Amino acid sequence: MQKLLNRFTTCLWFDNDAEEAMRTYASIFENAKIGSVTHYGEAGHEVHHRPKGSVLTITLTIDGQELMGLNAGPVFTINPAISFYITCKSENEIDRLYEKLSAGGSVLMELNKYPFSEKYAWVKDKFGVSWQLNLTDKTSQKVSSCLMFTGDQKARAEEAIKFYTAIFKNSKIDYLVKYEAGEQAPGAVKHAAFELDGQQFIAMDSPIDHGFGFTPATSFIVNCESQNEIDEIWEKLQADGGAPGQCGWLTDKFGMSWQVVPTVVAQMMTDKDEAKREKALAAIMKSQKLKIDELEKAFNS
Predict the structure, then answer these.
(1) What is the predicted pLDDT for the residue at 139?
(2) For residue 188, what is the domain's CATH number?
(3) Residue 128 shares a structural domain with residue 276
(4) At 234, is the secondary structure helix, strand, or coil?
(5) Which of 5, 18, 34, 126 has its Cβ near the most Cβ atoms within 10 Å?
(6) Do 149 and 257 fall into the same domain?
């Protein structure tokens, strides 16, 4: 099996801009590197109607944290319910990232001093992806996915954090700060950091209904090394109101989208033999929960 880079990969669903977006981010961030690129074949074309040979997925690592861009048509639109929280070590760095990431996009919160930060900004780039930039040296993880619970999911951040940390090993809540009496949403989470299998996430409740929420436009790939892991995580993430989807996707009770995927899939989808790739992809497309033995049988048939 392929050794895990990260337990989780944040996946962004684009219409057709995945490669441009990932290569743009690779040029903006230091310690960023493009990884694997996969392409559509006949099987993918039948489902998503993308041209054969066009980019299906492209991965990018920023300081060791993996992102994936997926081209899958205009079905879902990325929104700020899930953003990337970036820790900046210097004013030069935060100023540069603010300028680069906001170019052609929009500013959600101006780069400024705030009660919670000496220098902070929230921007949406030209691809629709949101970034929170914070000047701080208090965390070692450069890039963290930030979950904002709003709309139908407002005031559920603490419940979700406890749900996720109970499912994954090597998990813990680093800190959880709540709104106090007299503030906008007493008892709700103002800001929290937690780790899932050693990987840090950020979460917050928003007392404002922004008109958007969690969708499959941003999902989390759970990289699994065995079928037992897939079976266990697949069931636990769907508990109490979640629902299965196709191709290893599922939605949990908070509306969060996950892809529970064996690491062997990455090897299959980057194999030099196009016929084998096609057979593996066709098997994936027909599946809900992914089964390693069935994928390997298709791949080697």
Answers:
(1) 74
(2) 3.30.720.110
(3) no
(4) helix
(5) 18
(6) no
- Note down the domain range covering 251: 39-75+215-299
Pair 109, 191 in one domain: yes
SS3 content of the chain, % helix, strand, coil (to 5): 25, 35, 40
Residues 191 and 105 in one domain: yes
- Quote the DSSP letter at residue 41: -
Average pLDDT of every residue of the chain? 93
Residue 17 lies in a domain: no
Tell whether 196 and 93 lie within a shared domain. yes
User: Tokens 């070590």 map to which residue?
Assistant: 89
Quick check: 53 and 277 in contact, CB under 8 A?
A: no
Q: Which two tokens mark 224?
A: 């699994």
pTM, rounded to two decimals: 0.94
Beta bridge partners of 132: 85, 122
> What is the pLDDT at residue 45?
61
How many domains does the chain divide into? 2
Residue 186 lies in a domain: yes
Question: Could you report the per-residue pLDDT of 3-33, keeping only the tens digit for each?
Answer: 345 899 999 999 999 999 999 999 999 999 9
pLDDT of residue 47: 63
Strand partners, 201: 145, 194
Contact 130, 124 (CB under 8 A): yes
One domain, residues 149 and 169: yes
Token code pair at residue 83: 């953003």
78-104, pLDDT tens digit by residue? Answer: 999 999 999 999 999 999 999 999 999
Which pLDDT value is given to residue 155? Answer: 95
Q: Give the residue from 179, 205, 231 where a domain finishes.
A: 205
Q: Is residue 24 part of a domain?
A: no
In the predicted model, what is the mean pLDDT of residues 215-233?
97
Compute, in degrees rounded to 10, the torsion defined by CA atoms 235, 238, 243, 246: -50
Order of strands, edge to edge, in the sheet holding 199-205?
106-114, 117-124, 130-135, 82-88, 143-149, 199-205, 189-196, 172-178
Q: Which of helix, strand or coil describes residue 117? A: strand
pLDDT average, residue stretch 182-199: 93
